[in-house]
Amino acid sequence: MPWPEHLPNGCPPEDAQPVAGSVYRFVDNDPPQLEDFLSWRELNPSEPCPKGLTECQTCGLSVFTSEEGVRTALRRKPFLRKKKPPWVI
């Protein structure tokens, strides 16, 4: 699968590798909708980057590669508890 065209130059870094296999994603809808799989930048095309994030980061999509990663995220990021259970994609 090619990288999305909306990524800025140099993003992802040259050493980035595509993920193979299943991944987990926290979503807002059950069942998931297209907007659950859009990056922050795709949802906010004319907004400046949030403080502390690069343009490359705003174009990415957060996923987890293991159930342990999901559990760790829930412990460290309480706001994720408001999301729907992670969907495997």
The tally of helices reads: 3
Question: Major beta sheet, specifics?
Answer: 2 strands, antiparallel
What's the mean pLDDT score? 87
What percent strand? 5-15%
Question: What is the first-to-last residue Cα distance?
Answer: 14 Å
Number of extended strands = 2
Give the spatial strand order of the biggest sheet: 1-2
**Class from secondary-structure proportions:** alpha+beta
Number of domains: 1
Rg over C-alpha atoms, rounded to the nearest angstrom: 14 Å
Work out the helicity level: 10-25%
Low-confidence stretches: none
Keywords:
89 residues, alpha+beta, two-stranded antiparallel sheet, 3 helices, globular
Structure description:
- It is a single chain.
- The protein has one domain (24-88).
- The relative contact order is 0.26.
- The model has no long low-confidence stretch (mean pLDDT 87).
- It is 20% helix and 10% strand.
- The chain contains 3 helices and 2 strands.
- It is of the alpha+beta class and 89 residues long.
- The longest helix has 10 residues, at 67-76.
Q: What topology does this entry show?
A:
Blueprint: E1 24-27, H1 40-43, H2 55-58, H3 67-76, E2 84-88
Antiparallel strand pairs: 1-2
Offer a quick outline of the entry.
20% of the residues lie in helices and 10% in strands. The chain is an alpha+beta fold. The relative contact order is 0.26.
